[in-house]
Amino acid sequence: MTIRPIRLFGDPVLRQKAAPVVDFDAELRGLVADLTDTMLDANGGGIAAPQIGVGLRVFTYIFEDQIGHVVNPVVEVVGDEEQFGREGCLSIPGVPMDCRRHMYVVTTGFDMHGEPLRLQGSGRLSMIIEHETDHLDGILFVDRLDPENRAAAEAAIRDAEWSGGVVPEIRVSPHGPLRVTG
């Protein structure tokens, strides 16, 4: 379909909660195609609709050559195990940081035709699912960073050519950073 411009950190659409999809129609199928083409063109692991300026609860992903999408995702954490790994964002280019995520998640939602789907993720796929679902709630991965990594992200964003030396507000996620227990 179409490769769309990716909205960058500081664009207000990235901080808004996306609306649930109610119409599973040709327009939605076009959106999924545009998201997929944009994600692949940008060499990303996933992309959410708000990242191309569309306030709907849809994301696409690619993991181990499997391309998929989820409409109206609901994520359930499985177990207490966590992971700490490098994470980046197409809307914050060139600023990968170590971020803490859950090791296992199960996502339920729908495909673009309105059929129910269930996606289980562990490791990297879990990170992608959580990252993209956060976008649908107006949360960016930098919001989940610990204070040290948040400060490093702010410095990297300030130095990034695309930011013009300005660092938009990095919030503390309402869900907070994950903590290692034990």
From TrEMBL:
Signal peptide: none
Pfam family, one: Pep_deformylase
Residues reported in the UniProt entry to bind Fe cation: 89, 131, 135
Cofactor notes: Binds 1 Fe(2+) ion.
Name of the protein in its database record: Peptide deformylase
Enzymatic reactions: N-terminal N-formyl-L-methionyl-[peptide] + H2O = N-terminal L-methionyl-[peptide] + formate
EC number, as in UniProt: 3.5.1.88
InterPro entries recorded: Peptide_deformylase, Peptide_deformylase_sf
